[in-house]
Amino acid sequence: MPTDTPTFTILKPARLMDGTDSPPKTGMAVLLQDDRIQAIGPADKIAFPGAATGEVLEFPDATLLPGLIDCHTHTNMPGTGRRGEDVHREDTDDIRLMRSAHNVAIALQSGVTTVCDCGGWNKTTFSLKEAIKEGLVNGPRVLAAGRPITTTGGHCWFMGSEADGVDGVRQAARQLIKEGADFLKVMGTGGSTLGTDPFRPAFSLEELQAIGDEGHRRNRVVVAHCRTNDAMRMVIDAGFDAIMHGWFTDDTGKKTYDEKLADYIAKKEVRVNPTLQITRSRFQLFEGRDLTPEEEAQYTRMQANHAETLDHCGRLFKAGVKLMAGSDCGWGVYPFGHFDRELLALVNAGLTPTQAIVAGTSNNAELLGVGDIIGTVEEGKLADLLVVEGNPAENITDIANVTAVFRTGERIR
Ligand SMILES: [Zn+2]
Separation of 228 CA from ligand 1 center, angstroms? Predict the structure, then answer.
């Protein structure tokens, strides 16, 4: 927080990655003043201004990067394999909110300085945001969608925003914005929620257009959960900004890469958050034990499926689509604190480590409308920073070797 007497800190890492495509620079230093990045330059040129003094932090084997941005989390969820239905039936909002506080603190310690919550119960994620602002919870910056807008009985209906028809979805969007939604999340298809169909569009085009209009009129980004090609095409037609999952699948559930659709996504500059690790995290359920023949077959199918998802993601990236790194953690068996695994999965899909880091920093900041304050290490931006041992531009797994985390200039690890 800015005070009358400014606080200065100089960071001297071995390498600086700024969150863009540029290769890491060596011999650089970064001057922080209070919550901001004041100056960046060669280490021998960066000094405290005038008579000011401050702390000099040397990280001789480490890399300084922008704090990571996970564009897809569910802070209400435990990541222990409990289903949405279980958390709906067995937990109260009080417990869900306390779990959110617990989860985001873990995320922050792991170097994630901003998370999007893409769906929680009732008002819990808005309360989480308030609690962090008040300093009650030591968490990252949270951008919350609140409740996803879904059809009656649709994916995550139990979170509390079922809406139907043009008037109904408009009202739901306005209600969420009134309560504090930073962006709108729309369930474009079914998903893991029992009784939903992941392979068919959930809303009509008219309903989607109404949500898109309503969000954009109030300057909110509008994103859709889509697990099928038809639904992806519809949300693009409706003017949405980003697609979550974006797994290429036909209406029978068969994985089917569609080159024309990929070109359409690229041409419309819609971004895709491919959520690769959320399925791979399920492999652990089959590892390190004897499997029945049925389980063996299931595991083999899952692995083949995942290989195909990686291949599709790589082709989508080559088609020119900007990817957003987002873990979907909290859901399934993917706990908080392991965003590094999503970045590794992006590298497995064919991105370079630097491209994966761009997907988890500046690409997300830009799309979410916070690119002017975070997402890159740049003079004038907020000092949301991460220091990791090693060189993640060469070895992406180094991103997990966290040495220091700064949130708006404050060292929290
Ligand atoms: Zn999700």
Answer: 15
